[in-house]
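In the current project phase, the collection of sequences with tokenised folds has grown. A representative record is quoted in full directly below:
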Amino acid sequence: MLMFAIPLFTLVALFISFLFDRKKTYNAILKGMKMLWGIFPDLILILLLASVLLGVISQEIIVRFLGQGSGLWAMTMASIIGSIALIPSFVAFPLAAFLKDAGVSLDILAVFLTTLMMVGIVTFPVEMKFFGFRATALRNFFSFIGAIIIGILVGAFV
């Protein structure tokens, strides 16, 4: 239902904006299209890189690197593999379910999932264009540290 609610809300808001001030609405749409066109090549590159990475790195390879237990090596590998590409949750959670069924421990899965969804080396150039190098680097660094802390806490309490 939410999948239809957000575009519907956007269209209604656009229509209301159009009723109040056609010129501003038209200019806003043009500005948005120019911004989209400006990042379009980078978005295509990110999609291609993420697709290739997901195609080349199979779930079995990830299981082999993450190991069947927990520990420093598995946590390090989980954080590195997870940091490569920023992947949405609808892809990450089914992958995590497969990994859990394959025997990967919950603390390693926590690190892997957190870095997978919050740290993005592949998306770094696009994010840097909008937020600058410093903000992007800090966000990725603190997300990485947060993922490690989450993994340690999950390992300690679960």
